[in-house]
């Protein structure tokens, strides 16, 4: 899990050890990324480790209860939540993809 946690930090330009924030105001930055998550976080982990540009604000919407996903999101919040560059919204029931994206856009 540590490798994937690290990938998220690289995309957010956040160093959890020094609590340093990298500059994310350039034109080669994803301004907002909303990711609805439903089941196993493996696809999300793979995506985060393969994105090659920084993300200004990452909004993760947990769409339903899944134990492994919940643990992963808790760890992400623990490590990066202080930065203001990661927001996690949890929904115990699957509210659907469109509703999850809309919630993410409103945060």
From TrEMBL:
It comes from the Eukaryota. This is Beta galactofuranosyl glycosyltransferase. It comes from Trypanosoma cruzi (strain CL Brener).
């Amino acid at each position: 899990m540590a490798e994937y946690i690290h990938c998220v930090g690289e995309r957010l330009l956040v160093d959890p050890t020094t609590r340093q924030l990298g500059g994310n105001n350039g034109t080669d930055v994803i301004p907002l990324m909303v990711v609805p998550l439903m089941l196993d976080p493996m696809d999300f982990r793979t995506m985060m480790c393969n994105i090659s540009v920084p993300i200004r604000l990452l909004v993760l919407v947990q769409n339903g209860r899944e134990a492994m996903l919940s643990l992963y999101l808790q760890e992400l919040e623990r490590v990066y939540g202080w930065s203001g560059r990661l927001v996690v919204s949890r929904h115990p029931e699957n509210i659907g993809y469109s509703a999850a994206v809309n919630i993410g856009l409103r945060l």
